[in-house]
Amino acid sequence: MMGPDTETPERADGRKFRNFAPTTFAIDKSTSVLVLIAMIVIVGFASYRSIPREASPEITIPIIAVSTVYPGVAPKDIETLVTRVLEEKLNTIADLKVLSSTSVEGYSSIIAEFDTDMDMAEALQNVREKVDLARPELPADAEDPTVMEFNFSDFPIMQVNVSGEYDLVRLKEVAEELQDRLEQITSILEVRLSGGLEREVKVEVDLPRLQYYGLAFGDVIEAIATENVTVPGGAIDVGHQKFLVRVDGEFVDTRIIEDIVITTMGGRPVYIRDVASVDFGFKDRETYARLDGRSVVTLDIVKRSGENIIETAERVKAVIAEMEPQLPATTVIKITGDMSEEIHKMVNSLENNIISGLILVVAVLLFFLGVRNASFVAVSIPLSMLLSFAVLKALGISMNMIVLFSLILALGMLVDNAIVVVENIYRFREEGYDNKTASIRAVGEVAFPVIGSTATTVAAFTPLLFWPGIVGEFMGYLPKTLIITLTSSLFVALVLVPVLCALFMKLDTEPSEPLAPAARKSLYVIAALVLLAIASANLLSGVLIAVLAAGLVVLHRKVLDRLGRWFQDRLLPAVVADYERRLNWALNHRLVVMGGAGATFVMTVFLFGIFNSGVEFFPESVPPPTVYASIDVPDGTNPAFLNRLAEDVEAQLREVPGFEDVESMVATVGGAGMQLMGGSGDATVTVNFTDFEERRYDVFETIRAMRERLGEGLAGADFRLQAQEMGPPTGKPVNLEIVGEDPEVLRRLAEQVVQILESSEVGARLDGLESDMARGRSELVVDVDREKAALYGLSTFEVGSTIRTAIQGSEAAKFRTGNDEYDIVVRLAEPYRQNLDALRDLTIMADGGRQIPLPSVATWRVDEGYGSVVRKDLDRVATVSSDVVAGENSHAVLFAVRQTLADFQASLPPGYTLRFTGEQEDMQESQQFLTGAFGLALLLIAFILISQFNSVIKPVIILTSVIMSTVGVLVGLMVFRMPFGIIMTGVGVISLAGVVVNNAIVLVDYVDVLRERDGLDRREALVRAGVTRFRPVMLTAITTVLGLFPLAIGFNFDFIGLFTRLDPNLFWGGEQAAWWGPMAIAVIVGLMFATVLTLILVPVMYSLVDDASDFFQRHFTRAAREEPPITSPPPETDEPSRETEPESEPESEPEGAVAALSFRIRGIFGLRAGRAEG
Predict the structure, then answer these.
(1) DSSP code, position 741
(2) Rounded Cα distance, 164 and 85, in Å
(3) What totals of helices (H) and strands (E) does the chain contain, helices first?
(4) Three-state secondary structure call for residue 68
(5) Which of 36, 402, 750, 1160 yields a CA-CA distance of 20 to 30 A from 1026?
(6) How many other CB atoms sit within 10 Å of the CB of residue 431?
(7) Rounded to whole angstroms, how far apart are CA atoms 127 and 139?
(8) How far apart are CA 213 and CA 746, in angstroms?
(9) Which residues contact 195 (CB under 8 A, 6 or more apart)?
(10) SS (H, E, C) 693-711
(11) Secondary-structure breakdown of the chain: helix, strand, coil percentages, each rounded to the nearest 5
(12) Contact indicator for 164, 139 with CB cutoff of 8 Å
């Protein structure tokens, strides 16, 4: 049985040919391969239709939040009583990366961040265990800590906004009905309702009456709590029947509360109504929500993990359409933030880019190879894609923006292997071999170079699989998809395509055999049935496809066929002849060529250092679909006042030129719903723009006008505008932390930083500059005299609890009606809560029923507290952060900020340090990884090349072309005035390394074949190899470039829309083009430059290195002449993939021991003896 690379002498001229066993086996079993192709098509289409669609990869965020609510407590006390207690326990977790916390009024938030490779189920369990250990040490009246794991799948996929011309109570009832119906959809995890008015039972105590009857708040609370109960009484057997006994005391009506007896005085009962009023009313309103100026209740739709967003959204819309006729007449339901529409547009855009690239690739193949040969190459694209879809589906990878772009990037690479294989088979057919023999021998000749080139491309992307952090998990889908797709294309090129060529390939000079009448009729019937099936689904599609097919046939016969023949018979030979002249000139002027290449490299790097457009992390020129106008007010600001500010901001934004491009505007006051989607601040106005192709104005100009108009003439708040960003979550572009112990010093230092930046030149380039150590709200600090309190038998806790109940209120019980339950809250009546002097009349109940006036045991003062207390890894931290004005380069702005704060940083007090974090940290981490990944990719590629060629020098030649190709990338960035993207350009350079090496491998390998198998001298082998491989080298480069070209220039053409609705939706630009364009341009320009290197520089370098080796050999040969001759032949090289030189033209090898050593060294370096010509 033949091995995978067996040499079979079958020509009289003595040449020996390789035989690639898998290809031979496939050709011998051609029927099975045809069935396999049909299976790939069916399974691939089914997989593509069923793969879940997502906007961004569903990545795991290695963050767990611990939240604790302690209403009415100042930030400093929250830090002491809650945050530190929990932090001390959580900090003992072994795999913790960063522990940060924020303590604000009434709320403690602790964030535990782990490495991305951490098992989050285990991390969640560890955090819960530590929280359980800390729970007994927390204040008794604080709510239980909530442990929550962050996950992208928990974010809403859309918001359903319900509005109507009726009150907010009825509006919420309507929304709850819709909520119940939507939660019945199996693919929905939950529906969160926000907005409207929340009910509660208010028991508002009249302080003088309470004191008159000698009662305390605890008496009122206890009376309500002990009456609102249902007590099981066991069971009674009466005769043959058994009765369950229960005491049913739960309130069925809030009016019952008024009649509860608290105590008796002089034989007369004292009722709740005697000391308090009971009202089934509403909680104090803290939040407002509006959509386009109308009050709304919002339903956040959260899907289950792994469910298809588009299908889930369609079910939601179907339920809404079904319920709308049953809702009140004035009800308006509007959907915002619909991720399914965004995904549909993104998938549609990238799919159309794939189709556009495919059309361009096939068109080029037709010109270079003719219709028949181009068909064999073109069929490799859908087969590779469909096979990749099946693998992606099996691995559970969703169809997201990263995967789709990876398919576009792979589009040009897919045909590389098939081009080399088909072109070589065709060349063997031209030499007179039959289809089967030509296929076997042609694939055997190029199989290992093709495998090696694919392996080197895969090796270039392999290091990216180990990209750390959230950014790495986000971008990790790119190498996964490319490795799967390239491996699929290798299988298609070496197994499936040769079988098709063996069965159907014909030379252009061979006459076409006419089809038998029965076969011709069968084809017509099949075509008619296909068109009929399409027309039955969509008549327009059937008609357009029929017209297009007829038009293409006519166009081919009248124009394209003649044009293609002219290109192949006249233009292409002329181009090849011109290349041959240039190659000969280069070989005659090798030092000039090498010097020019080196000077070009040095000069390009030098010029890029001067004329570069800066550095960016992710692309910053992406036109945003949404912007957020945030309003920040001092803590304690009345929500109603904040709502009026939000209304003013809405009015200001409506007056901005370009507002016609706004699709909807949502205002949220005091809520956190939109903050999860990108907004921040006490109030947020979310502005959603129409689709990119429908906009009449430049979105960046509109945003600039909004920024200038925002907050104009409004006082009492800070305003900022922030654009929605694509990509994984990262910190802010400008984010610095001041670490120290004293919160007051930290606040002062943070304020100094803000003032320095605002007054400097860089201040105009910052947007939303703020410190998280803002001044807190005014506090009424009650100082308890512990000695006096002890004399009355009171404690600080009893004094504090009484004050808290009086002002904040305490929950006495729950009032249940139907499926709903409401808090029964006891506190002072509103007139007493809003008067500081009322504290003088407050009394604390001591033992024996004595009422002790508060002034007897405590004093109080008005002071200013902290807005928040932030800690990171147990250290107190003040953070100053800012976004960057649209159009500014984040890296350049950060550099200016560093320079501005250099003197301040040097003058910090002892014990205080300043450090830059946020996006800068992520960028440095990614930059370090990508630099290392590029180096590791080169090492892997070098190892594969050394293994393939059994040489050290040849891989150096090939890798030099890879390094030189970066000149094209830098030139492209300078010409197009694009910044060097750490992510996009970095990944593009690594991708380029894998592509560039392919052509060099094929060229160098064929030079060796010609010298070893055909006995050509070096000069002739270099020229013939260059001429022979010119067409496949150019084709692989052009197809890769054209595959990316539509995305690079932002060309959008909706082919599906054209054939289904006669709407091509033609436009230029868009979010996807701006996002992926830098990477596409890096690959395109770099590959164009690298192709010239491959065709000119690689032969010149090969020639120079061969001469250097020849000089080395002659040096040892002269010494060897003094030695006695050794008649034994020199040892053969141990390369398994190289043929022996033909006996008809033996190499003139040196004799003697040293000569044998010299020959062996030359074998190691992969060079053969021969005439040093050129």
Answers:
(1) S
(2) 47
(3) 40, 37
(4) strand
(5) 1160
(6) 10
(7) 19
(8) 50
(9) 168, 172, 175, 287, 289, 295, 296, 297, 298, 671
(10) HHCCCCHHHHHHHHHHHCC
(11) 55, 20, 25
(12) no
The answer to whether 780 and 860 have CB atoms below 8 angstroms apart is yes
433's CB contacts (< 8 A; 6+ apart) are 441
**Rounded mean pLDDT, 822-847:** 80
Query: What's the rounded Cα separation, in Å, for the pair 185 and 573?
Result: 65
Contact 870, 102 (CB under 8 A): yes
What confidence tens digit (pLDDT) does each residue in 518-569 have? 767 777 788 788 878 888 877 888 888 888 888 888 887 788 778 878 887 8
Helix (H, G, I), strand (E, B) or coil at 199: strand
Instruction: Report residue 348's pLDDT band, with 50, 70 and 90 as the boundaries.
Output: confident
pLDDT of residue 1156: 41
Question: Residues 1093, 419: contact at Cβ < 8 Å?
Answer: no
DSSP 143: P
For 792-801, 1015-1024, 1095-1104, which range has the lowest pLDDT when averaged over its residues? 792-801
Contact at 8 Å (CB) between 1123 and 1153?
yes
Kindly report the pTM of this predicted structure: 0.71
CA distance 6 to 448: 12
Give mean pLDDT, residues 866-875.
Answer: 78
CA distances from 864 to 106, 153, 380, 779, 872 (A): 16, 41, 72, 6, 24
**Residue 272 to residue 256: CA distance in whole angstroms:** 10
Please report where in the chains the tokens 């299976």 appear, as a residue: 39
How many of the other CB atoms lie within 10 Å of CB of 335? 18
Span 226-252, average pLDDT: 83
SS3 681: coil
Q: Are 364 and 1039 in contact (CB under 8 A)?
A: yes
Whole-number average pLDDT of the chain:
81
Q: Residue 821 pLDDT > 90, yes or no?
A: no
CA atoms of 877 and 875, how far apart (whole Å): 6
How far apart CA 911 and CA 901 sit, in angstroms, is 18
pLDDT digits (tens, 9 = 90+) for 49-62: 888 877 777 777 78
441 CB-near residues (< 8 Å, 6+ apart): 10, 17, 18, 19, 428, 433
pLDDT tens digits, residue range 400-410? 878 887 887 77
Q: Specify the 3-state DSSP secondary structure of 140.
A: coil
pLDDT in tens, 75-85: 888 888 999 99
Q: How far lies 29's CA from each of 422, 490, 496, 904, in Å?
A: 19, 19, 11, 77
